[in-house]
Amino acid sequence: MTDPRDLTDAQLAAHLAYSAGRILLELRATGTLEGRALGDAGDRAANEYLVAALAELRPDDGILSEESKDTIARLSKDRVWIVDPVDGTREYGEGREDWAVHVGLAVEGAPAIGAVALPGRDMVLRTDEPVSLPAAPQRLRMVVSRSRPAAEALAVAEALDAQLVPMGSAGAKAMAVIRGDADIYLHTGGQYEWDNCAPAAVALAHGLHASRVDGSPLAYNREDTWLPDLLVCRREHADRILSLIANA
């Protein structure tokens, strides 16, 4: 087995995302916890693994994790790892498969490298190994929140006559566009940098469009980690969708 210290950044991101996913699956398989308690335990276990591994293997880089106390130290770094140990904690605790592990690397604020593990599907999508995108169907499909689809997303879906596909985590939704289960992921309900850094990096590496809903680039490692909206879609659909959003 390759020593983790010899891995490239992209290989490391994929290795860490996959390994954290295995930890989470093994924890869930014990059957000793469920629901919120399982989600909380999973967040802690995966976060401890990811933060410790990054501190050891990339000691000069900054780290921003949903499950760790943020510090201003990262703001002086050009390279910052942005991780979400369990994206879709609710889905993980419910025994579903639409949850993810995000390991992203922002370089000078851009989503440069990333891996999104979908442990329930035994899959890791990554920036250094892009896969071919399936052909888009005649009727487009839009992934939306299982419980609270954003009004803007519903309006755009209606204008496009797009089929709605309810799904859990942000990472699972973004990766659904790559996997061919959806064609559009439009989110305006509020997110943080860890929710979309790795998914955005992976989407861009696969030739997809990924931006804010006003078309501006996604920017990371800011003092305020709130990053409320996101559009991931095929490039040929982006202009029309952005125009519809502006009028929604």
Q: How does this model look, in words?
A:
The protein starts with 8 loop residues before the first helix and ends with a helix. Strands 1-2-3-4-5 form a five-stranded mixed sheet. A five-stranded mixed sheet has the order 7-6-8-10-9, sandwiched between helices. The chain has helices at 9-29, 35-57, 89-93, 151-160, 170-179, 193-205, 235-247, and strands at 62-65, 79-87, 100-107, 110-118, 123-126, 141-145, 163-167, 184-187, 209-211, 230-233. The chain has two domains: 4-126, Fructose-1,6-Bisphosphatase, subunit A, domain 1 (Fructose-1,6-Bisphosphatase, Chain A, domain 1, 2-Layer Sandwich), CATH 3.30.540; 141-247, D-Maltodextrin-Binding Protein, domain 2 (3-Layer(aba) Sandwich). α5 packs parallel to α6 (193-205). It is an alpha/beta fold and 248 residues long. The protein is built from seven helices and ten strands. 38% of the residues lie in helices and 22% in strands.
Number of helices: 7
CATH architecture grouping of the largest domain: 2-Layer Sandwich
User: Strand percentage, roughly?
Assistant: 15-25%
Which percent bin holds the helix content? 25-40%
Q: Could you state the CATH homologous superfamily of the largest domain?
A: Fructose-1,6-Bisphosphatase, subunit A, domain 1
Are there runs of 5+ residues with pLDDT below 50, and where? none
Q: What is the typical, i.e. mean, pLDDT?
A: 96
- One letter per element, helices H and strands E, the order comes to HHEEHEEEEHEHEHEEH
- Structural class category: alpha/beta
Q: What Rg do the Cα atoms give? A: 17 Å
Write out the strand line-up for the largest beta sheet, numbering strands in chain order. 1-2-3-4-5
Cα distance spanning the termini: 52 Å
Domain unit count: 2
Q: CATH first level of the largest domain: which class? A: Alpha Beta
Oligomer: single chain
Number of strands: 10
Q: What is the CATH topology descriptor of the largest domain? A: Fructose-1,6-Bisphosphatase, Chain A, domain 1
In this structure, how is the largest beta sheet organized? 5 strands, mixed
Shape: globular
Cofactor: Mg(2+)
EC number: 3.1.3.7
Organism: Paraurantiacibacter namhicola
Keywords: Hydrolase, Magnesium, Metal-binding
